[in-house]
Amino acid sequence: MSETPKSALHPASLLAHGGGGVDPATGAVVPPIQPATTFARNANYRLVSDTHLYARDDNDLVRQIESLIADLEGAADARLFASGMAAIAATVRTVKPGGTILAQSGIYWGTTSWLRKHCDHAGIALIEADAADTARFCETLAESGPSLVLLEAPSNPWLTVADIAPICEAAHAAGATVAVDATAATPLLMRPLSLGADLVIHSATKALNGHSDVLAGVVSCREADSSAWTFIRTERHDAGAILSSFDAYLLLRGLRTLALRMERMCANAQTIAEALAAHPAVDSVLYPGLPEHPSHERAKAQMHGGYGFLMSVLVTGDGANALAVAGRLALIKRATSLGGVESLVEHRHTIEGDATGVPENMLRLSIGIEAADDLLADLTEALGPDRR
Ligand code: PLP
Predict the structure, then answer these.
(1) What percent of the chain has pLDDT over 70?
(2) pTM exceeding the 0.90 threshold for the entire prediction
(3) Atom of ligand 1 nearest to the CA of 85
(4) Is 103 inside any structural domain?
């Protein structure tokens, strides 16, 4: 990087430069894609470069992104994975057979679903508990003695924001590691490591990349010499869930505009949440930026610069009515995923069924960077004046 020390720069400036500087050899302001899977040795059988042996762990673009994300998180180290689920799986596999995991309930269904299968397969006790009630969650923690506590903040699709600091205190007293999936916040809005978490996870598929064209995940740690981090680092190296060089290039390109995208997405989401909360065809809006949301005060204390791009809307009427509303949307696309520049809607009950208690009249919205007026016009048209 140039003369300015990285630590003196705001996250937006670090991001705009992709966490790197000008290539001293060529002056290139964008790093090259590095497709090589293997790196040569000289005639004395010494590696030409000590830090380049094999691409599973030795890709410069991947390293640049890991260093950028570690800076954003205030982390000691970070590792990219081939998807958010691969990052979560590496974290969960720190728990040995016979151990216990305490996971927040009502989180991303893919995580819950995989956790249930994995724990059953591996002989790990899985306890799912609501993290909205901090005292009860900490009681469960003390009683069950887990080795890993897994939180998701804000949670998908309920937008619950767990009180990370006291949960970490209780977890550490019980000898547990705390991992927080902060995908819906990004490191720009929330830094769980500064609240005491040991590990922070993101599906980089979502807002970090932001263009719905890369699958990626990342785990960052507070202490690089912890046993959990040693396991995760080794797991990434040995088990091979690595990002391809081309995907790393796209992810870095996406990251460069993260601050700008988040500003717009958060502002759009706040405007839309407020407007929908007052709409007669809406029962309630779950968005931590609304004062009436049960997690609002906690979100205000833990999140900075906005409340994110994700919200769930409970429309009046039944599941058929919710599906009809989704069906009438024109600008907002009906698709899974979140955090992209384009707004998406999803009827989660179609995916989860009755496995998690997601109500049939819930529509989850991921708000993008379109003009708020266009998004509101689309939603208002779909909801109708009062279509009950
Ligand atoms: N964490 C959260 C909060 C998610 O919403 C998702 C996917 O929707 C994931 C993790 C999984 O990420 P990926 O799809 O990149 O595997």
Answers:
(1) 97
(2) yes
(3) 16
(4) yes
